[in-house]
Amino acid sequence: MASAKILVVEDDTPTLKLIVRFLQHKSYQLQMASNGLSALAVFDNFQPDLVILDINLPDVLGYEICEQMQLKRDVCILILTCRTQQEDIAEAFRKGADDYITKPFHLEELQWRIQALLKRRRNNSEQVLEQIIFPNLIIDPNRREIIVNDQLLNVTSLEFELIYFLASNSERVWSRAELIEKVWKYSFTGDHRVVDVHIGQIRKKLQAFLSPPLFIQTVRGIGYKFEYFKS
């Protein structure tokens, strides 16, 4: 099996060298960039499986790079930044990030997060799963597509996995902590409201095809549940 390809986008040279040196010993294929413009060029040529992306780049904020990369193709994006405010974390996830680590950070934790993201991606690509079909909703896990009222819903990799998991396990309510464990595939020690951000993004996208956006219901004080209602 070929080793995973990782693009590291970081403008701080010592940090960039530290990450690259560490990951080289883990046998990943690596490319690097120190600004947004070069990151997009490398992204197109290298076709990475995962991107480690700083927000504070010299030419453009990493949020915009994250969004552009996700529009180009489905890729795992791990934000690595000194920004710790909740609004920064929320914005990163709104733009399509899969994970978020704040500086200073431990290299071992970075490796755990990378492994979790790549494992989830690998498992999804290897499994052949059944479609979930309703009269105005199709969730296709093999093509990784969601069709609402005959229109393709543009979602990120993590948004797809979240709605697919809820739809596949609609018999119960899932807490935020459970969704982190089941969808993110690791024990998350940060703010569980990250789930709310992704649910909010899914609902916002559904609004283009459904009014009001259906399917994912909030159960106050507990979490979320998938329920099908015909629009």
Automatic annotation (TrEMBL):
One of its GO terms (biological process) is regulation of DNA-templated transcription. The modification 4-aspartylphosphate is found at D54. CDD domains: REC_OmpR, trans_reg_C. Residues 5-118 form the Response regulatory domain. It comes from Gloeothece verrucosa (strain PCC 7822). Residues 129-228 bind DNA. This is Two component transcriptional regulator, winged helix family. GO terms for molecular function: phosphorelay response regulator activity; transcription cis-regulatory region binding. Residues 129-228 form the OmpR/PhoB-type domain. Keywords: DNA-binding, Phosphoprotein, Transcription, Transcription regulation, Two-component regulatory system. GO terms for cellular component: cytosol; protein-DNA complex. It holds the Pfam family Response_reg. It comes from the Bacteria.
